[in-house]
């Protein structure tokens, strides 16, 4: 039997370290996935939709309040986990902001704070006002950081996505929370600030959609376009801009019809965490219908939302609990 030929230069294969035993396990919340927050935002929105529905349909309000209480607790738990992760290594914020699920998740986390404020406003207005101010400061910082990361990215990555609505138009959700707190003036200012920003993002997104069809995994994000139109309709009605509110509701209805008509195309890639983008726009649309007096249409949307939002929320929570959500969304580790 011949000996194996020897490498004349003495090169040897690279030595790999032995497997770690016991296997490496991240500390609790070290890889908390921001991508869990869009689904939580949708569940919070469903609770607020139910609160409006029970008033319009003269049903007992206890069901909506119980659901809202549970969803506020869920948001608080997830926010605590994210805070623990950031406290261990603050640089994870910039790392997560480099990914699309991370940007959507951080923005949805702040918007979830606003909806939590709207939920507790009738019971603890002073706390609600304090949290609203904190939320607006956090969102301003997040918007600045997101813009900085976007400008530092290579040219091919500088695309305006529907997630920009969450980051830069998301202040309209603060206006939604300001209304039950009696801060109508603040809500009015935020309405007029966010309206042109939303119009600009819709315009740019329409041009991009004409020029290039988005890849199948990213198509669920198109549903986010429904949210600002619905929220502008709700807040517009609250600040006395009824004509603009009806115009925004009409635009929201057109977007909703387009989303339903292209539903199979949008969901072609199958279920992913990005399906959380279906949840909060649907609840926002239903709430806008009830606010502007379209109770029958609002009830139909509510029925659909009760079937869709909890199902998506359950699947995303299951991925989170099993540790798969962080891996699938490439969440940074602290």
Task: Tell me about this structure.
The chain has a single domain (34-322), classed as Glycosyltransferase (Alpha/alpha barrel). It is 68% helix and 0% strand. It is built from 14 helices and no strands. α4 crosses α6 (163-169) and α7 (171-178) packs parallel to α9 (226-238). The mean pLDDT is 92.
CATH superfamily: Voltage-dependent anion channel
Report the biggest beta sheet as strand number plus sense, adding barrel if it closes: none
Task: Encode the helix/strand succession as letters.
Answer: HHHHHHHHHHHHHH
The total domain count is 1
Percent strand: under 5%
Q: Give me the count of strands.
A: 0
Q: Give the quaternary arrangement of the chains.
A: single chain
Number of helices: 14
Radius of gyration over all CA atoms, rounded: 22 Å
User: In angstroms, what separates the terminal alpha carbons?
Assistant: 54 Å
Structural class determined from secondary elements? mainly alpha
Write down the CATH topology.
Glycosyltransferase
Percent of residues in helical segments? 55-70%
Tell the overall outline: globular
CATH architecture term: Alpha/alpha barrel
Rounded mean pLDDT score: 92
What's the CATH class label? Mainly Alpha
Low-confidence stretches: none
């Amino acid at each position: 039997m011949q000996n194996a030929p020897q490498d004349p230069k003495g090169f040897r294969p690279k030595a790999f370290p032995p497997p770690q035993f016991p296997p490496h396990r991240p500390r609790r919340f070290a890889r908390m996935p921001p991508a869990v927050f869009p689904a939580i935002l949708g569940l919070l929105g469903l609770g607020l939709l139910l609160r409006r529905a029970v008033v319009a349909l003269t049903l007992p309000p206890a069901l909506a309040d119980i659901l809202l209480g549970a969803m506020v607790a869920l948001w608080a738990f997830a926010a605590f986990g994210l805070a623990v992760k950031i406290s261990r290594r603050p640089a994870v914020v910039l790392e997560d902001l480099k990914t699309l699920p991370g940007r959507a998740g951080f923005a949805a986390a702040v918007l979830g704070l606003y909806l939590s404020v709207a939920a507790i406003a009738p019971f603890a207005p002073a706390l609600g006002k304090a949290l609203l101010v904190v939320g607006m400061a956090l969102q301003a910082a997040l918007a600045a950081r997101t813009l900085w990361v976007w400008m530092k990215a290579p040219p091919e990555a500088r695309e305006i996505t529907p997630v920009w609505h969450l980051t830069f138009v998301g202040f309209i959700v603060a206006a939604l929370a300001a209304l039950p707190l009696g801060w109508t003036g603040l809500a009015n200012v935020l309405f007029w600030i966010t309206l042109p920003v939303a119009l600009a993002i819709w315009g740019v997104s329409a041009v991009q959609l004409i020029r290039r069809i988005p890849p199948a995994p990213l198509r669920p994000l198109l549903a986010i376009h429904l949210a600002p139109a619905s929220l502008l309709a709700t807040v517009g009605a609250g600040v006395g801009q009824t004509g603009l509110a009806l115009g925004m509701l009409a635009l929201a209805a057109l977007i909703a019809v387009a989303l339903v008509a292209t539903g199979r195309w949008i969901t072609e890639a199958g279920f992913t965490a990005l399906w959380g983008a279906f949840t909060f726009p649907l609840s926002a649309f239903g709430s806008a219908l009830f606010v502007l007096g379209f109770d029958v249409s609002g009830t139909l949307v509510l029925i659909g939302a009760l079937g869709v939002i909890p199902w998506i929320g359950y699947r995303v929570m299951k991925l989170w609990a099993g540790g798969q959500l962080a891996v699938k969304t490439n969440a940074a580790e602290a």
